[in-house]
Amino acid sequence: MTPSIQIIYASQSGRNQAIAGHLQAQLASQAQTLVTEVSQADAFDLLANDAVIVVSYTFHDGDLPDEAQDFFADLKEVDLARTKFAVLGSSSKKHIHFGRAVDYLTIQLNASNGEQVADSVKIDQDPDDADWARVDQLAKRVLASLAE
Ligand SMILES: Cc1cc2nc3c(=O)[nH]c(=O)nc-3n(C[C@H](O)[C@H](O)[C@H](O)COP(=O)(O)O)c2cc1C
Q1: How far apart are CA 67 and CA 2, in angstroms?
Q2: Where is the Flavodoxin-like domain (predicted)?
Q3: Domain encompassing residue 44
Q4: Is the pLDDT of residue 81 over 90?
Q5: How far, in Å, is the centroid of ligand 1 from the Cα of 103?
């Protein structure tokens, strides 16, 4: 059966939205994909997917985006029952806490009993070719984990 993958993104100036769109394009031939902006995402619905990919920028002083706070709070209440997941995001090395939102989301999805199937990927601002290769590698790992 075709696996279902939900891609949830937070993006203020468009980089992470573009990454989410790229992931969808990479995955669409082999999975049913749903792209959701994080303020519209329901953490309690994640179990309906075979895998979840979260794409987020970092804001304030190494914090989650404001619009991701509700999703993150709900995540603490959810048992993901080993739902497969991966996390990535564009943020900026100009800030001290580079990509901290990626760390927080990775830690929480693990704590919520998700199964991490790819190393988390942090991208400095606009992705370069090497970054896109890392994004594609993450997508491949997610697909491979679903074929197991
Ligand atoms: C007010 C502000 C605070 C930020 N704080 C951080 C931070 O603490 N750590 C970090 O890595 N990036 C930080 N960033 C950088 C963004 O995460 C980065 O520009 C990211 O690529 C934006 O993604 P988007 O285009 O999807 O919105 C900050 C950006 C702004 C505007």
Answers
A1: 31
A2: 5-143
A3: 4-147
A4: yes
A5: 14
